[in-house]
Amino acid sequence: MSPDRFCLPPMTDTRPAKPTVASTLACKYALLPEGWASDVCISIDKQGDIVEVEANCRPLPSNALAGYLLPGIPNLHSHAHQRAIVGLTEKPGTNADSFWTWRNLMYRCLEHLTPDHMLSIASMAYLEMLKSGYTSVAEFQYVHHDHHGSAYDNVAEMSLQTIRAANDTGIAITILPVLYCYSGFGDQPPLPEQRRFICNIDQFADIFQNLSTAICNDRNASIGIAPHSLRAVNFIDLRNTLVNCATTAARPIHIHIAEQLAEVNACMHQFGLAPISWLRENFDLDTNWCLVHATHASLVEIESIAKCGAVVGLCPTTEANLGDGIPDLASLIEHNGRIGIGSDSQCTIDPVEEMRWLEYGQRLKRLTRNVFATEPSKSTGREVFDRVTMGGAQACGRQSGRIAQGYRADFLVVDTNHPRLFGRIADDFLDSWIFSTSANLVRHVFVGGKQIIRDYRHPGETKINARFQESMLDLMDHL
Ligand SMILES: [Zn+2]
Predict the structure, then answer these.
(1) pLDDT tens sequence across 108-164
(2) In the list 26, 259, 363, 425, which could disulfide-bond 64, CB 3.0-4.6 Å?
(3) How far is the CA of 6 from the centre of ligand 1 (A)?
């Protein structure tokens, strides 16, 4: 089959040479690529891109926002439907509890999940993301089929519901349909409870095509691909899918890798190589790739990831909740590796907590402090924030993560009118926000120039809450 069957050509940029300003935004303080600035005015075109950024605009307009304006935070790894089971797996099982016992409950939830549930649960997850400062999400979506494992009339039905949830709430989305073929290394046949995920590469190509068509005119949506893991795809399927879907245009390619020791050991047994080494050996990793977790990586593997420019997708609260382990981020940072954060299982949805635990995990592992701070001009919180916004944007394939001309107008505003932030400026403000607050202080959020959260509120949240409650009451009867 021709690659053209699967992939739409890149969208033509039809913007005029000199974009006209559709809106402006002013803020007392902002974090720009060159550093902290005050009295900042930003011009935005009608497509939601930044046209111009000017500091020291005096006097500021009377409607200027108080607080600190920051680049929006990308969430590079989400399974929206897992929002339904948060908090339900914290009881000891009869055997040793592990990631695999958690997975059993997730599978039970899937026995009953409908497209309507998916819409209401994803809407709730995305609302929580927006309210906490995430402005975009990479949705790693593997629930494709109905309860019997049969394709819906539209084979991409479940993923389309997550796109609809993103549109309804206003978060930017990178939809990552998941290729999931086997239950384990050596092409082991799928388990009955995996029937809703399983597809061959032709069916996957149809899902990819339908999703590509659905988003082609949406500046806040894009598409990539997600081979689930090395245990769920084989070399030939992965190679063919990359050829079919990721060569005619640069697209994000996300994969779970080296999350669990059991998976690493099974890969060693099958191939004689650990997962990251096997992937590096067989595929040309580059800046399109996002290696999700990479928890159990050798120093050689860490160096090779850093060298190829791939992003490591870290989800500290989920990795802690599932007992995955703590990755050696200090070595990754030493080699200038790229990182981003994700809410993954949605056990909490809070980028501040993820950023805090990125650093805290390394302190506990290394018995030292300020691991992320590698240059005297930047504090630890600033280093974490800069890396997470830039790496996350790369992984989402979105031109964001900087408040600068040509970038998407994705911002958040942190409310400094809180005792924990009184008197804090610049990097001290960022450190105090990340390491010393627990209340949500994200007051405003903008996506593509449009204000989505105003004074902590989303206009649709009453409706989203009600629909989510209905779905949860329905699902809890079966869990
Ligand atoms: Zn995941």
Answers:
(1) 888 899 999 999 999 999 999 999 999 999 999 999 999 999 999 999 999 999 999
(2) 26
(3) 25
- Which of these is catalytic: 45, 237, 324, 344? 344
β-strands 411-414, 442-447 pairing = antiparallel
What is the pTM for the complete model shown?
0.94
* Domain spanning 21-71+403-461, CATH architecture: Roll (2.30)
CA 256 to ligand 1 center in whole angstroms: 6
- Tell the CATH superfamily of the 73-396 domain: Metal-dependent hydrolases (3.20.20.140)
Indicate the SS3 state at residue 413: strand
Decide if 147 is catalytic: no
Domain boundaries, given as residue ranges, for the chain: 21-71+403-461, 73-396
Q: Please state the separation of Cα 53 from the chain's center in Å.
A: 27
293 labelled catalytic: yes
Report the C-alpha gap between 217 and 237 in whole angstroms.
29
Distance 185 CA to ligand 1 centre (A): 18
Q: How far is the CA of 42 from the centre of ligand 1 (A)?
A: 36
- How far apart are alpha carbons 300 and 288 in whole angstroms? 21
Using CB atoms within 10 A of its CB, is residue 248 exposed (0-12), middle (13-18) or buried (19+)?
middle
Say which of 77, 79, 81, 293 is annotated catalytic.
Answer: 293
What 3-state DSSP class applies to 341?
Answer: strand
Q: How many angstroms does the Cα of residue 206 sit away from the middle of ligand 1?
A: 23
